Amino acid sequence: MHSHIIPEHLPDLSDKFGYGGFIHLEHHRKGFAKMMIGKQFFREIEENCWSPTKRLEDMAKNNIDVQVISTIPVMFSYWAKAKDTLFLARYLNDDIANTVRNYPKNYVALGTVPIQDVDLAIKELERCMNELGLAGVQIASHINDLNLSDPALFPFFEACEDLGAAIFVHPWDMMGKRSMERYWLPWLVGMPAETSLAICSMIFGGVFERLPKLRVAFSHGGGSFPGTIGRIEHGFNCRPDLVAIDNPINPREYLGRFWVDTIVFDQQMLQRNIDLLGKNRVCLGSDYPFPLGELETGKLVDSMNFDQETREFLLHKSALEWLNLPKSQFI
Questions:
Q1: Angle at CA 49, nearest 5°, toward 45 and 50?
Q2: CA-CA distance, 58 to 49, in Å (whole number)?
Q3: What residues make up the domain containing 103?
Q4: Which of 88, 138, 253, 283 could, after both became Cys, cross-link 110 (CB 3.0–4.6 A)?
Q5: What is the mean pLDDT of each run of 10 residues along the chain (331 residues)?
Q6: Residue 39's pLDDT is what?
Q7: For residue 170, what is the enclosing H or E element?
Q8: Is residue 231 in some structural domain?
């Protein structure tokens, strides 16, 4: 339920819109492309990042039947003018919907929206759900200067609940990245902190309380949240004047109200998430096709002596509940 895809061809939107910062692709050799921000190299990607057929080959090697696909978070482009982000989002969403149309038994898609403008985001969300047939949307752990608790974003979450859209929260633009450029720390430290920021914001901001039918999944096993829930709850108890200002309910009450993936690379941590959130709230993820993901999808789950019921939840039942999709759709 956690993998990323990008169109094979991305136009240089900097030329179209007259300002820089947008990602485009340079196909510099067969099966490989450079992700470029203007003239600056960002990352090299391989064919499996855009080719549905190549992905199917890799999925077969890992015994994966269905993959939930969403854009690469660097494509969010919330920093841009909202109408320009909308143009990009529509381009990405049309491409990802086409992949699902061509391979309906193998792919489920999440769209992207210009959430820096909530009205535009809701319109594109409606198009994703009603016209393109997507299962929901992927959003970032914060939206520019807004945390997910910000009242300005609440109408978007309301619309997701009303439309039955699943939400997948993925970190990007990590906090403190300028002060920890060495050792890949933004990815190793910043990303887990970002995910905890998102979970805490939605809990303390009352989003889960006010929208009980909202279905939200968080990447990377919930980041640092599961390992610090004790501290988070203690802070709620000892300083409610600072913590409980928008929601008076103990954060531990929301365990089991959201989903996380299995991308934790540690048996004890995976077991903790199952104990903490419930086996029906942990879903197989991979972060495919990137190296920080689980390169052999399901290896961690397979390494543990789970009973059959737990395995079924981890491998498909939990994800299907989050997506609100029947298993029969893929048989």
A1: 120
A2: 11
A3: 3-7+48-330
A4: 138
A5: 96 92 95 93 96 97 97 97 98 98 98 98 98 98 98 98 98 91 94 98 98 98 98 98 98 98 98 98 97 95 98 98 97 89
A6: 87
A7: strand 166-170
A8: yes
- SS3 of 107-124: the string is EEEEECCCCCCHHHHHHH
Q: Whose structure tokens read 């690469």?
A: 72
For residue 115, give the amino acid letter: I
Specify the pLDDT at position 76.
98
Q: How far apart are CA 264 and CA 270, in angstroms?
A: 6
What pLDDT sits at residue 181? 87
| pLDDT at 11 (0 to 100) | 84
Q: CA-CA distance, 231 to 238, in Å (whole number)?
A: 10
pLDDT of residue 48: 96
Given strand 40-46, what is the order of strands in its sheet? 23-29, 32-37, 40-46
The CATH number that applies at residue 54 is 3.20.20.140
Q: What is the pLDDT of residue 248?
A: 98
Question: Which two structure tokens, joined as six digits, stand for 317?
Answer: 């039942």
Q: Is 164 left (phi over 0), alpha (psi -120 to 50) or beta?
A: left
Residue 37 lies in a domain: no
- Where do the H-state alpha helices sit in 41-179? 52-61, 82-102, 118-130, 154-163
Query: Which pLDDT score is estimated for 38?
Result: 86
Hey, is 70 helix, strand or coil? strand
Chain centre to alpha carbon of residue 72? 9
216-218 and 166-170 beta bridge pairing: parallel
3-state SS, residue 142: strand
Counted residue by residue, the chain has a size of: 331
Structural domain count, the chain:
1
Q: What is the pLDDT of residue 137?
A: 98
Residue 162 maps to a domain: yes
